[in-house]
Amino acid sequence: MEYSKMTLKELREALDKDEVTSEELFQEANKLAHQYQEEYNPFVTIIDKYKMKKKKDTIITGIPYALKDNISTSNILTTASSNILKDYIPVFDATVYKKLKEAGGVLVGKTVLDELAMGGTGTTGHTGIVYNPWDKTREIGGSSAGSAAAVALGIVPFAIGSDTGDSIRKPAAFGGVVGFKPTYGLISRYGLFAFASSLDHVGCFARSVYDIAVVTNIIKGYDPHDMTSLKDDGKDLTETLDNSIKGRKIFYIKEICDRSQYDKEKDKTVLEVLDNFYELLDKMKENGFIVEEVSIDQDLLAAIYPTYMCISCAEATSNNANLTGIQFGPRGEGNTVLEIMFDARTKGFSELIKRRFVLGSYILQKENQEKLYLNACRIRRLIVDKMNELFKTYDGMILPCSGGAAPHFNEATDQLSERYLLMENHMAIGNFGGFPSITLPSGFIDHCPIGINLTGKVKEDDVVLNMAYQIEKITGLKGMKAGDERCMK
Predict the structure, then answer these.
(1) How far apart are CA 376 and CA 383, in angstroms?
(2) Is 314 within the bounds of a domain?
(3) CB 404 within 8 A of CB 413
(4) How confident is the model at residue 415 (pLDDT cuts 50, 70, 90)?
(5) DSSP alpha helices (H): ranges in 182-248?
(6) Total number of domains constituting the chain
(7) Domain housing 215
(8) Residue 476: inside a domain, yes or no?
(9) 235 CB-side CA count, 13 A
């Protein structure tokens, strides 16, 4: 029996029927992790010793999983894929890791990310590039690159990631799996290395919406260590998955999805994505969804990316000020504290990270705060207010995840049109407002997966998952792993 193709529900059944043991599942996952490591590089650390601790029996008891390497694990190397933390071993567990251990999950390894979670390509981790399991000439996306790849390869049935702009949802789309970022505060961020605290979310990858609901049930809940965490609402997210969606209203944004604004030759791939998108919308309508087009001010949409960059860079600069080579990281050279810090940070960070820190410092300078940082916060509020206004009428927003399949490593991104960039960057809206947001496969281009993104009202994670579950039935793309034969149809 090929366990790498199974969903959580199927693995649970196999364990309960004694068709396989937990240790056998771990050994299989460990073997696959080592087998794929050289070719795809999903892991920073692979755990070779089987270890299961549990306080209760759950669906995931005895089942292997992977954890993004910016989540604190006591006595296990945790690097955030940065040279400045390449030898860091935490002394405490993140809440999400603690909950998974108590539920009986078996950790297989810590996964590669874009350095300090800042990036969307999966190419800047200190241990090297993460390659897309569907096509090695393509990116998997980031920053949760290794987690997405580990699930897409079938090494593990689920993995934990973090999402600050689209860092779970975009690589999920490029990897042909499901990626979920819940309501801000639903899952504790205690032990997550902060990138941009007002935007950071912990979430998960899996190969079905049901499995996403199972994992989220286990890791959600109030945490006294995280003042932004929400009180547990007691909802079982699996119970409402199969509820009827007749009458559920969803909107999409005209300025992003209007075919007429794209060139038939230059934007051929974007138009293929939109063909897939509108075909899915038609099927959704046939199955009871109400789908409508709305218009949003183009200037407001164009402000999404610069607003995200201003806020995230500013917060990242502040959050990572402790990475000096004194408290953390290899000690730099110099005769003064400033010289030691300068040397450590120059050697310890990649060029991309240094640029973001310089930008963040500039934005936070007293003379620039009003014009740059505070204005970005005001624009964020305008965007969130617009979404909340629409959510008074609609249950969710649906849009394509990107303008095509995962980009090739050698593709020039500076040739993309502004309209194309709107399609690439709209998922940051979910982080601006803390809205629950999920990505799931919707089809294929060039035998590689593409996805759609569904975003809903704050604290209505159950509604978002219910709608996603019904859409998954419509697409028929549940339980995929790299090379799935459905990509050839």
Answers:
(1) 11
(2) no
(3) no
(4) very low
(5) 209-219
(6) 1
(7) 3-245+434-488
(8) yes
(9) 18
| Torsion angles phi and psi, residue 201, rounded to 5 | -135, 145
Residue with tokens 């569907």: 134
In a domain, 312, yes or no: no
Rounded CA separation 264/243 (Å)? 40
Look up the CATH number of the domain holding residue 442. 3.90.1300.10
- For 203-236, the pLDDT digits (tens) are 999 999 999 999 999 999 999 999 999 998 899 9
Residues annotated as catalytic are 68, 143, 167
The amino acid sitting at 17 is K
End-to-end CA distance of the chain: 25
Among residues 134, 138, 107, which one has the least CA distance to residue 122? 138
Tokens representing 206 are: 């899996």
Q: In what order do the strands lie in the sheet with 437-445?
A: 43-46, 106-111, 64-68, 158-163, 201-206, 178-181, 437-445, 448-456, 396-400, 249-253, 290-294
pTM, whole model, 2 decimals?
Answer: 0.96
Select the more confidently predicted residue: 147 or 336: 147
The answer to whether the peptide bond before residue 188 is cis (omega within 30 degrees of 0) is no
Per-residue pLDDT band at 1 (split at 50, 70, 90): low
In whole angstroms, what is the distance from residue 189 CA to residue 225 CA?
9
Q: Report residue 350 as tokens.
A: 């990649």
Amino acid at 126: H
How is residue 408 written in tokens?
Answer: 């090739």
> What element of type H or E holds 396?
strand 396-400
Q: Which residue has the tokens 């009986």?
A: 104
- Assess if residue 124 is contained within a domain: yes
Q: Convert the pLDDT of each residue in 172-185 to its tens digit.
A: 999 999 999 999 99
Which tokens go with 43? 């892991």
How far apart CA 274 and CA 256 sit, in angstroms, is: 10
- Mean pLDDT is lowest, of 152-156, 396-400, 455-459, 481-485, for 481-485
DSSP 397-425: EEEESSSSSPPBTT--GGG--HHHHHHHH
Query: Are 137 and 408 a contacting pair, CB within 8 Å?
Result: yes
